[in-house]
């Protein structure tokens, strides 16, 4: 069970890092959201527009707090 927690934490951190990288890319927000949604779909995670907006807001807040 402990190993599963480490794997989940690693994957969550990797996803958060990738998403933060996309957020700071010089692209329009709509294009960035599409890329995040596509990445999540490939991982088997499906979010509607509102859930995606919430996720982006959470990631942006985390990144801002880290600065």
Q: Report how far apart the termini are.
A: 33 Å
Provide the gyration radius in Å. Answer: 13 Å
Q: Categorize the overall geometry.
A: globular
The helix tally amounts to 3
* Mean pLDDT metric: 77
By helix and strand content, what is the structural category?
Answer: mainly alpha
Helical amount: over 70%
What is the string of SSEs from the N terminus onward? HHH
Beta-strand residue fraction? under 5%
Question: Could you say how many structural domains there are in total?
Answer: 1
Number of strands: 0
Biggest sheet statistics: none
Which residues form runs of ≥5 with pLDDT under 50? none
InterPro entries: YtxH
Keywords: Membrane, Transmembrane, Transmembrane helix
Protein name: YtxH domain-containing protein
Transmembrane segments: 6-25
Report on the architecture of this protein.
- The chain has 67 residues and is mainly α.
- Helices cover 81% and strands 0% of the residues.
- Helix 1 (2-23) packs across helix 3 (49-66).
- The protein starts with a helix and ends with a helix.
- This is YtxH domain-containing protein.
- Keywords: Membrane, Transmembrane, Transmembrane helix.
List the helices and strands and how they pair.
Elements: H1 2-23, H2 29-42, H3 49-66
């Amino acid at each position: 069970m402990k190993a599963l927690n480490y794997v989940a934490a690693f994957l969550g951190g990797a996803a958060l890092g990738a998403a933060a990288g996309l957020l700071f890319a010089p692209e329009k927000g709509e294009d960035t959201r599409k890329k995040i949604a596509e990445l999540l779909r490939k991982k088997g995670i499906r979010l509607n527009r509102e859930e995606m907006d919430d996720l982006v807001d959470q990631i942006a807040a985390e990144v801002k707090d880290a600065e």
